[in-house]
């Protein structure tokens, strides 16, 4: 019985690590967006200064 539970939990671990990879990719994308938006902010704010 315990063996089966172990197998299941290891499968869960694998799938959750895949999700982690996906979410880290999304994080990278969103940080890129942040960078570009901050560049736009600089363009907008420098003339005001």
**Regions with little confidence, pLDDT below 50 for 5+ residues:** none
Helix content: over 70%
Our estimate of the beta-strand percent is under 5%
Radius of gyration: 21 Å
Overall 3D geometry?
rod-shaped
Largest sheet: none
Taken in chain order, the helices and strands follow as H
In total, the number of domains comes to 1
Describe this structure in words.
By secondary structure, this protein is mainly α. The protein has one domain (1-49). It has one helix spanning 2-48. The chain is rod-shaped. The chain starts with a helix and ends with a helix. Residues 1-49 are annotated as: Disordered. Residues 1-11, 19-49 have a biased composition (Basic and acidic residues).
Give the tags.
49 residues, mainly alpha
Gist?
Residues 1-49 are annotated as: Disordered. By secondary structure, the chain is mainly alpha-helical. It has one helix at 2-48.
Topology:
Elements: H1 2-48
């Amino acid at each position: 019985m315990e063996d089966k539970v172990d197998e299941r939990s290891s499968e869960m671990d694998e799938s959750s690590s895949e999700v982690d990879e996906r979410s880290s990719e999304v994080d990278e994308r969103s940080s890129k967006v942040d960078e570009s938006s901050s560049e736009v902010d600089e363009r907008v704010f420098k003339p005001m200064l």
